[in-house]
Each structure stands twice: as structure tokens, then as C-alpha cells.
Amino acid sequence: MTDQDEVLLGVRDLRTEFRRDDGDALVAVDGVTFDVRPGQALAIVGESGSGKSVTVRSVLRVLPKTARVTSGEARFRGRDLLGLSEKEMRRLRGREIGMVFQSAMDAMNPTLTLERQLTEHLLWHGICTKADAKKRAVRALGDVGIPDPEKRIRTYPFQLSGGMRQRAMIAMAMVTEPALLIADEPTTAVDVTVQRQILDLLAGLKDQGTGIIMITHDLGVARYFCDDAVVMYAGRVVERAPTRELLDTPSHPYTVGLIGSSVEVGGRGLPLAPVPGSPPDLTQRPEGCSFHPRCSLAERPRCHTEQEIVTIGPGRQAACWKVAVHA
Ligand SMILES: Nc1ncnc2c1ncn2[C@@H]1O[C@H](COP(=O)(O)OP(=O)(O)OP(=O)(O)O)[C@@H](O)[C@H]1O
């Protein structure tokens, strides 16, 4: 089997724009490329507004009306998701691609019991018969560690604690046995103990061969859970590497700053403190490297005119020509 055969999701040169009222286009995602393989987790890290969510929303085709993907490819199991009909995408989302978000309250329907939500989800996707749906739903809740699932299945999301709700959302995402799971800050709103339990649950999925994309602010979570990482800045990937290498020996000046400003205590990263300065207004992106106005190493004219991708090693690239000079 070649490397290429093993790619579950291959995103290439993805570009997504928002149309603004003043007519200007805001390029939120600009040329993003990454691969996710079965049984592997990819972290997408970066400051707020760097384009992490818009990237995965573009892949899932759940963008606000004002946004559109203007170019690129998102090949999932051989099919380009960006070329599928909306009907085909509806079949795929929630079935072959599961989704877990920061807040289960936003992702689940507060007016339906867990039983209704889980069984309707299974039946809509044609996973099993009505007779089997409840059994599978109870099993899914048990699998994510919800005690007494036969009883709990009759509750509404708001009747559960935050941690239990998050588990129920993961049960929803897992019940169809998706090949790919996209998790957008799944542990941000829960305490450390629940965070660990949720990561262990997701690790179980990974062991079964599920590919995972994890958006996270928490470098400790990325280190603990993710095989590879991409760092985004102003809509672009500025560095990609196996996670441990990226965190131990970062290359791009932005990654260095990001890690330098994050304190990892006992393997858990605190939320990232911002690198001095602020990201650019995406309607007026600086020429060349978008990070140059904040970069202490920036040199004229090269950093102001070009952004070069440098390959540092296997699976490692950084969007900074100075990396090659210092390597
Ligand atoms: N609904 C929207 N309308 C207009 N622009 C938007 C909208 N949503 C996002 N954007 C633009 O896209 C950029 C990327 O947003 P995105 O939500 O992907 O960032 P993020 O990295 O996920 O941030 P966070 O960590 O805060 O969730 C933002 O900086 C903003 O300029």
C-alpha cells in the first residue's frame, strides 16, 4: 500500500472567502493543505481567528451563507467533498464523518431526549432497523461511560452535567462508526478530569482506526493526543510536523512564539497567551509572509515580498525561508 492509499482525508490548497457588505473579499483560509490518515490524529492549532474552524467547516460544507470555497480539494475516501451534491454531503456528514464540538448544548437538540436524538440519527442514516436502534443507542451511551444508560437515555441534554453531555455528544458522533471524526475544541469547556476521560475515549476510537482532526488551543492536548500538527496563522499553514517534533523543536518564528507563550504544566498546556502584536486584518493581508509585521527576525525585502515553504525533514515543513538558512 502506498502512502497515498492510506490518506483518509487529503486537503489541498483550500481557499475560502467571506463576502463583506462593503464588497471586499476576506480570505479566511488561504491555500491550506494537510492529510489525515486512518488511526491518526491531526491537531490544528493557532490563535483565535487564524482559520481553524473555517477550514473544517469548509471541508464539511457547513459554512455561513456569506462564505464560499473558491478553490482546492478535500478528497475523502477518494471523493472530493467539494464536488458532491448537498444531498450526498448530508448522507456523509454524521455518518462517515462524525463531529464533536466545544459545546454539546449547541450541537444537540435541547427539546429531544437522548433516545430520540440517537435513534433518529441511526435511522436517518439507515444504519439499523427501528427494532435495533434503541439497543445500539443504549450501547453507545454505555461505551462512552455514561452510567445506567438504559435510564439516562430517557433524559434531555440539559438534565445532564457538562461532562456527561459532552460524552453524549461523542456517543452521537461514534454511534455510526465514522471513518473520520472532526473535533473542534472538544475539551475546552470541561474540567481537567473530564478532559482526560474524553481524550481517552477519543484515543479508543483512534485505536480502532478512526482518523481524527482536533482543533485545539491547548498544546498539552495536542502533545498528549495528536500524531501530527499544523499551525495556522492568518488563514495559512505556517508549519506542519509530527506533534512532538513541532513542540520540542519548533521552526517557524510564529510557532516558536506560540509555544514560548504557552506554559505546559504536568503535560497540560494552559490556554495560549497571544504572541505580541495582533494578527492582520484579513482584508488587508500584508504582502509576502503574513507574519512579518510581528516577526523579530523579519528582513527586507524578502519577508515583505514572498512566503516560501521550506521542507525541513520527513513530514516537516515551515513557511519561512530563514528556517532553511538556520537549519
Ligand atoms: N461569520 C463570519 N463572517 C465573516 N468573517 C468570518 C466569519 N467567521 C469567521 N470569519 C473570518 O474568518 C477568520 C477565521 O475564523 P475561524 O473561526 O476559522 O478562526 P479560528 O481559528 O477557528 O478561531 P477560534 O479559535 O476563535 O475559534 C476570522 O478571523 C474572521 O476574519
TrEMBL record:
Subcellular location: Cell membrane
Gene Ontology annotations of biological process type: peptide transport
GO molecular function ontology, one term from the record: ATP hydrolysis activity
Pfam families according to UniProt: ABC_tran, oligo_HPY
Domain spans labelled ABC transporter: 9-259
Keywords recorded for this protein, A-Z: ATP-binding, Cell membrane, Membrane, Nucleotide-binding, Transport
Transmembrane intervals: none
Membrane topology designation: Peripheral membrane protein
InterPro entries reported in the protein's UniProt record: AAA+_ATPase, ABC_Ni/Peptide_Import, ABC_transporter-like_ATP-bd, ABC_transporter-like_CS, Oligopep_ABC_C, P-loop_NTPase
Top-level division of the source organism's lineage: Bacteria
Cellular component terms per the entry's GO annotation: plasma membrane
Entries under PANTHER family matching the protein: DIPEPTIDE TRANSPORT ATP-BINDING PROTEIN DPPD (PTHR43297:SF2), OLIGOPEPTIDE TRANSPORT ATP-BINDING PROTEIN APPD (PTHR43297)
Family: Belongs to the ABC transporter superfamily.
Protein name: Peptide/nickel transport system ATP-binding protein
Taxonomic lineage: Bacteria, Bacillati, Actinomycetota, Actinomycetes, Propionibacteriales
